[in-house]
Amino acid sequence: MRRVIVVSVVTGFLFAFLPSAFAARPLCYGRRATIVGNAGDNVLRGTRRADVIVGAAGDDRILGLGGRDRICGGSGDDELAGGDRRDRIN
User: What is the pLDDT at residue 64?
Assistant: First the structure.
């Protein structure tokens, strides 16, 4: 009984203080975003790898760069550019 209580308390403590990075991220083409903008006007750049980039609100500029990226703008007037691979842009 004591172990169950200790495990419950520790688990509850961990979930109460998880950083916001572990919060649910938006989806783009069914995949969780790896790079996310905010409500402002953002310039978001991908990496050499396959990224999932979501601009959110604001007038964003999103550059896919390398990798097979999935890029989703948002509610603003966005400029979206893929990279040198076969990217999916919405």
Answer: 94
